[in-house]
Design a protein that fits this description.
Region (Disordered): 1-21
Radius of gyration: 18 Å
Order of helices and strands: HH
Largest sheet: none
Helix content: 40-55%
Number of domains: 2
Number of helices: 2
Shape: elongated
Biased composition (Polar residues): 8-21
Mean pLDDT: 75
């Protein structure tokens, strides 16, 4: 995998977006610096709980919408 780095800017969402749009390891390109630990450090417990709450709220909103309450 070739990694191109060009600045000191953080690359959380853009970096993940770049990886997700790539079709193979050969085509992955990072255009800015990013913290390598973003890909090697597991999320902390507070973030996991927050994401679980968002999932619950998403399902509740979907039910309300499908039932015509929104």
């Amino acid at each position: 995998m070739e990694v191109e780095r060009s600045s000191n800017e953080s690359l959380r969402s853009t970096g993940l977006n770049t990886v997700s749009r790539s079709t193979s390891r050969k085509t992955i390109r990072f255009l800015r610096d990013f913290d390598d630990t973003l890909f090697t450090t597991p999320p902390d417990e507070e973030l996991i709980l927050f994401m679980q709450r968002l999932d619950v709220m998403d399902k509740q909103t979907k039910v309300l919408f499908e039932n015509g309450h929104l």
